[in-house]
Design goal:
mainly alpha; 23 helices; about 70% helix; Metal-nicotianamine transporter YSL7; transmembrane; membrane; oligopeptide transmembrane transporter activity
Amino acid sequence: MSDKIAKQATEAKDANNIKDPHLGWMIGFLFLVSFIGLFALVPLRKIMIVDYKLTYPSGTATAYLINGFHTPEGAKLAKKQVKTLGKYFVFSFFWGFFQWFYTAGDECGFKNFPTLGLEAYNNRFFFDFSPTYVGVGMICPYIVNVSVLLGGILSWGLMWPLIAKKKGSWYPANLEDSSLHGLQAYRVFISIALILGDGLYNFIKVLIRTIAGFISMVQQNSKSMLPVSDNGSSMSSMEAVSFDDERRIENFLKDQIPKSVAYGGYVAVAAISIGTLPQIFPQLKWYYILVAYVVAPVLAFCNAYGSGLTDWSLASTYGKLAIFVFGAWAGLSHGGVLVGLAACGVMMSIVSTASDLMQDFKTGYLTLASPRSMFISQVIGTGMGCVIGPCIFWLFYKAFGDIGESGTEYPAPYAIVYRNMAILGVDGFGSLPKNCLTLCYIFFAAAITINLVRDLTPYKVSRFIPLPMAMAIPFYIGSYFAIDMFLGSAILFVWERLNKAKADAFGPAVASGLICGDGIWTLPQSILALAKVQPPICMKFLSRSTNAKVDSFLGLS
């Protein structure tokens, strides 16, 4: 939103489309938009956690980490599980530390290792040596990992190379691949179409089931089969439930958060925001905010559902959708760029907070924690974040005068990317490249059709049908993490064939150790970055011809 970033863009540099950061309005903005996401999906927590049995890999990993120290099982097994978790935690942490030494420049280090060749690397097919994604692959169901890999092959292996050949025909030949007037538009909008098709289908299905159950006044008995449990089916009243799961379900449903609190809280916070946000952003009219809060629960469900399957929160994707919709609605002359960016902030806050809360509910479900206590703790933590986050940003913003400028120590590349998205948004969807919208319609319909086929076919057939939501993620991001996840899935598959009892007992502990160790390493890595301690080595890979040119330039050949 700042003037500094606006000067780097191509247009929309007038005062109506600029708002420089200030600590006061940033804290106020976060307090207005951050809490509403906590209320959005509370009424659906039983459906998401108990009925659908969504895995929420990060929440599950956290739960196993906690249960490793407070397990109800035998002390002998508990000690072995904790020892296994600790072993892989240490390995993952020091592997991250080791990798850091080779990341002295852009595209350096093991995370940019072209394991499948340079051409595959250029199309984002490579193993990036990430313990986190290997661990996530060990936790996620097989069908999720296979779906993600299939999505990567379909998009980066087939579609994007074919569309790239249409450069000059479907979109201008002088554009970079990252331009949203070019190839990037296909990546972003087709992935959004798949996500919305899958998420809206499941939202409507849940809504219909809920209404039917209320009218008939009998317990819901769904015949749908969603591939989120160990055997690929949803929990029903006839399914055998272990003693541990009985205790978890009983505890999870005992300490209820009243629905009146959820609905009332959502309406109250929405009303305050609708009345107050236009005071911060005069260009953001009250009816824009009202529409955002009406559709936000649907998008929050889509994001929480996808996060439960794959551990990926696609809040930024829904934020991009808000940029285009509200920016186009407002128009450039009415501050459409600022409206799009503000609406993006509102939407991202709602859908990401709802997804994070559901992750925490999953952790609470597995650790027998009180859902009501967790909700209250989340409210307290959100309030702290509304103050701490802007203060940290303000510290950087004031300490580094050139922050956000290209080529500096802190270029903040997403700032210019999001502003350019907003500029594109004020031109409307008509500015998208040729056939992009048509492909979006096709993939939106395909997502709904695939889900219908899954629900209408027997389990022995449907368990092999991929998930559109999982397939959509690599469309935009790339396939590198899909290969990591697939490797984790393959490791678990082989382990189960060799010793299923041991895999069931220690698989989650191994996965949790890999995820947590890699995550904890980011803390000292951040401290090193703030202290301006640079890695000593850059490990980069070049083709033979490029290497010959470099050697010739340096006089080494």
